[in-house]
């Protein structure tokens, strides 16, 4: 590793992730990009205005939309541990709208699916998100979708190996 790569890797190891894994393995080849990305991801994953539970739900929708096995393997168990019901996770895995969601979960799900599939968010869905989360929350929700899309692109391109997980792999 170059000195810049070692510095960027150490920042991840010393942070809340505790190790260099997943998307950061291919990203280490561009240490400045990796450093910028990991700082954004640290905010979005651990401190966003929508909270960890809803961030994890948005991550799962993004992983499903991008058929991203690594994101799914890592985040499906985390999502369940922070309160996303197993039946919601299973429905997302099947590409189905979950039948029983809390209001905030339904707003996040609809926002994310619209953003990924239509590249827009309809006024009604945007208004629902704005009413629940405020402007910062809506921007952070867009950020979660964009950041995890970026990571999905990186890992899908690099062929990143899937870690062992209690989550069943996504069907194609």
Overall description:
The protein has 172 residues and is mainly alpha-helical. 70% of the residues lie in helices and 0% in strands. The chain contains eight helices and no strands. It has helices at 3-14, 24-27, 31-46, 51-65, 69-81, 86-93, 103-118, 123-158. Helix 1 (3-14) runs parallel beside helix 3 (31-46). The longest helix is centred in the last third of the chain and has 36 residues, at 123-158.
Ranges where pLDDT stays below 50 over 5 or more residues in a row are none
Largest sheet: none
Helical/strand content category? mainly alpha
- Content of β-strand: under 5%
Average per-residue pLDDT, rounded, comes to 96
- Distinct helical segment count: 8
The geometry reads as globular
Number of strands: 0
Euclidean distance between termini CA atoms: 35 Å
Short description:
The chain is mainly α and about 170 residues long.
Explain the layout of strands and helices.
Elements: H1 3-14, H2 24-27, H3 31-46, H4 51-65, H5 69-81, H6 86-93, H7 103-118, H8 123-158
Features:
172 residues, mainly alpha
């Amino acid at each position: 590793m170059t000195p810049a790569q070692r510095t960027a890797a150490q920042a991840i190891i010393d942070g809340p992730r505790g190790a260099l894994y997943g998307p950061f393995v291919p990203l280490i080849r561009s240490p400045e990009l990796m450093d910028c990305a990991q700082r954004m991801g640290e905010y979005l994953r651990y401190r966003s205005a929508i909270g960890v539970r809803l961030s994890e739900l948005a991550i799962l929708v993004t992983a499903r939309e991008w058929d991203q096995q690594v994101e799914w393997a890592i985040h499906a168990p985390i999502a369940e541990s922070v309160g996303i019901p197993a039946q919601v996770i299973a429905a997302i895995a099947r590409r189905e709208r979950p039948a029983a969601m809390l209001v905030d979960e339904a707003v996040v799900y609809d926002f994310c699916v619209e953003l990924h599939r239509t590249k827009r968010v309809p006024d009604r869905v945007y208004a629902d998100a704005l009413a629940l989360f405020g402007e910062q929350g809506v921007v952070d929700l867009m950020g979660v979708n964009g950041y995890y899309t970026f990571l999905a692109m990186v890992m899908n391109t690099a062929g990143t190996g899937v870690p062992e997980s209690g989550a069943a792999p996504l069907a194609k």
